[in-house]
Design goal:
Blueprint lengths: L1 H31 L7 E14 L6 E21 L3 E12 L2 E12 L12 E2 L2 E5 L6 E2 L13 E5 L4 E14 L4 E13 L2 H9 L5 E2 L1 H10 L4 H8 L5 H12 L2 E16 L4 E16 L8 H6 L4 H15 L3 E10 L1 H49 L39
Parallel strand pairs: 7-8
Antiparallel strand pairs: 1-2, 1-14, 2-3, 3-4, 5-6, 8-9, 9-10, 10-12, 11-12, 12-13, 13-14
Helix pairs in contact: 1-8, 4-7
């Protein structure tokens, strides 16, 4: 019976391992393969920063100013639970004439890597500067198992919007790191978020421009305000003159837009960012001339005056002119930074393969072997019949003992016969 019990135990353990391999793959692997809570990495980029306009007049510079650019992007997980991770991102921009720091905090799903709605998603450490990342968008890491035909959204914190990623190159080996990646591009120009507008103001960019500061732009656009006022002045009522004076004395608000036109190289298995290239990233500016629109009815009354007509048409065209680029960055990730990202991606690939494939397959293989061995032992035991447990020691044949000879009877002892002489 002892061998039969071992066979049954092997069958039980084998079945347990087979079922466990399925359960491990279905439940344990997703629980283990998640965004780690010990992430603390820095990516570095280099390129060129170009300034196109004068900050005071917003007029285009005769010769745009270019400077070498260095950017570091520090990503660190600061807290988390089983399902979510709170991640800080610090972006430091350096040029010979400027140094700025941007800080953002995200909350992401540790399994899908997607951002989630959470009040802890804030900019510049200000609890009131809540970011509204659309659920399903990505920032610090992209989808595990990124597909070429997938639809993905990238979160742009400077504008508090998402941008569709468009595949521009399928799976290929990234030069220099020998790692398969896919390239996606984003292209968006959106008004900057309120918290980023404060950041620009802290950098010294003007938030509004006076009429005197705007005048060079108007002249450059062929608009002679002074001539128009001189020609129409004699025809204006007191109310008309007061309205024009008020409009001209009111500073013009400046609207800023964030430009993001760049490519990301993503390692598809882990969703890791291996490289980032910016064709153009920066800000553009546009005077808000909506306030001048209240002069339209007044100007239309005197549209027959050539200078007034030129003023009216010129202001309309200026209001419709797209924002002009104020400053732009072009950069790419440095080779050492890409190599470090590729190394981390390979390490995570191996861990994912171990948890998702190798461990479950090893459990299944061992379970199958134990199950097969147990079945063989039990089958052999049953063939020998009940109570028979393999070969037993042979019982030795009994040794025959010869009978003893009869004892001699002493003469004269117990006998009725008498001794006869010869």
């Amino acid at each position: 019976m002892r061998h039969s019990r071992w066979g049954v135990a092997a069958i039980g353990l084998g079945v347990t391992l087979l079922v466990g391999s399925v359960g491990f793959r279905a439940a344990a692997a997703p629980a283990l393969v998640r965004f780690p809570l010990n992430v603390d990495v820095t990516a570095r980029y280099s390129g060129t920063a170009t300034t196109y306009v004068d900050q005071k007049t917003l007029l285009p510079l005769a010769h745009p100013k270019s400077e070498p650019l260095q950017i570091s992007r520090h990503v660190k997980a600061v807290s988390g639970t089983f399902s979510k991770a709170v991640v800080d991102e610090t972006v430091t921009v350096k040029t010979p004439s400027l140094r700025t720091v941007e800080t953002y905090q995200y909350v992401i799903d540790r399994r899908t890597m997607q951002m989630v709605s959470d009040p802890r998603q804030i900019a510049f450490g200000d609890p009131k500067a809540v970011m509204h990342a659309a659920p399903g968008s990505y920032r610090v890491n992209f989808s595990m198992g990124t597909k070429a035909n997938g639809s993905y959204l990238a979160f742009i914190p400077e504008a508090d919007v998402t941008s569709h990623l468009v595949l521009v190159r399928g799976l290929h080996s990234h030069p220099g790191v020998n790692l398969p990646v896919m390239d996606f591009v984003s292209n968006v120009t959106k008004p900057v978020a309120p918290y980023y507008l404060k950041h620009l103001q802290a950098m010294g960019l003007p938030m509004q421009i006076t009429g005197a500061q705007l005048e060079p732009q108007l002249i450059a656009a062929g608009i002679d305000v002074n001539q128009a006022l001189a020609d129409v002045g004699p025809h204006l009522t007191a109310a008309g003159k007061k309205l024009i004076s008020k409009v001209l004395a009111t500073p013009v608000k400046l609207n800023y837009f964030f430009i993001d036109n760049g490519t990301v190289s993503i390692e598809p298995k882990t969703g890791a960012l291996i490289d980032v290239h910016a064709q153009r990233q920066g800000i553009s500016v546009q005077p808000d001339l909506s306030g001048i629109g209240i002069l339209a009815p007044l100007l239309n009354e005197y549209i027959s005056i050539p200078s007034v007509k030129a003023l009216s048409v010129g202001l309309s065209k200026l209001a419709m002119r797209p924002a002009q680029i104020a400053e732009s960055y072009t950069y790419t990730e440095t080779v050492p930074s890409s190599l470090a990202a590729a190394h981390d991606a390979r390490t995570n690939q191996h861990m994912m393969t171990l948890v998702e494939r190798q461990i479950p397959w090893a459990m299944a293989l061992l379970g199958a072997l134990l199950l097969a061995a147990g079945l063989v032992v039990v089958r052999r035991s049953r063939r020998r019949g009940p109570g028979v447990e393999g070969p037993t020691e042979a019982t030795p044949e009994p040794v025959a003992i010869p009978p003893l000879p009869p004892e001699p009877v002493p003469v004269g002892v117990g006998s009725n016969r008498t001794h006869e002489g010869v």
